[in-house]
């Protein structure tokens, strides 16, 4: 019954936003051997202060490299100033066939706590970001329709107590690609009043192909169930983990 209600609300939400410019904001906590509780990766891709080669940003399947060089759906528009010293690079993409834009922020790996809190507050409709581009005033941060977090699950290492508004005016969709993200993010996302389109139940590699697959389905106004299937098939394609294992990894809703 709960999943049925989620599907109905999801469909109504997307009917209302169908004619709007769709804005997606991705929060990337750069992989950091020194400041995060992770199994260390090679030094060059585990330097959380160097986006260029970072595992989750500039490396082969990092958000920046993957969306810029390994997909034809998103057209790189360039870098943008963020005004936040913890965001080491901000880039924007425009979808090739749809009225949609994606803003991605590379957060200093040492500031994963601030990155996580920023994502959670935006999920509650706070910290809005307006960017003028293509003659439009694009709405990201708390005004985006879809928010995504990708990287290490810092909530396994620290606690947060973000101050949420009691009743956000509009429900936002969220994707959280991090290990055990449903377990650790659930209470915060419920308090934020956001709608989990995709998150995880076990250990995972939060690389950009899964994010793109989920966004593809979201842009087509697919149900969370279909988006989950896209993510599972794509993750299995790249990780060779077995489709059964992928199906046990991804979930939607509460």
Q: Please give the number of β-strands.
A: 10
General shape: globular
Instruction: Please estimate the helix content.
Output: 25-40%
Radius of gyration: 17 Å
Order of helices and strands: HEHEEEHEEEEHEHHHE
Q: What would you call the structural class?
A: alpha/beta
Q: How many H/I helical runs?
A: 7
Multimeric organization: single chain
In spatial order, strands of the major sheet run: 2-3-4-1-7-8-9-10
Percentage of β-strand residues: 15-25%
Task: Report, as a whole number of angstroms, the end-to-end distance.
Answer: 11 Å
Describe the structure.
The chain is α/β, with parallel strands linked by helices. The protein has one domain. 32% of the residues lie in helices and 24% in strands. The chain is built from seven helices and ten strands. The strands form two sheets. The protein has an eight-stranded mixed beta sheet with strand order 2-3-4-1-7-8-9-10, sandwiched between helices. It has a two-stranded antiparallel sheet with strand order 5-6. It is globular and about 45 Å long. The protein starts with a helix and ends with a strand.
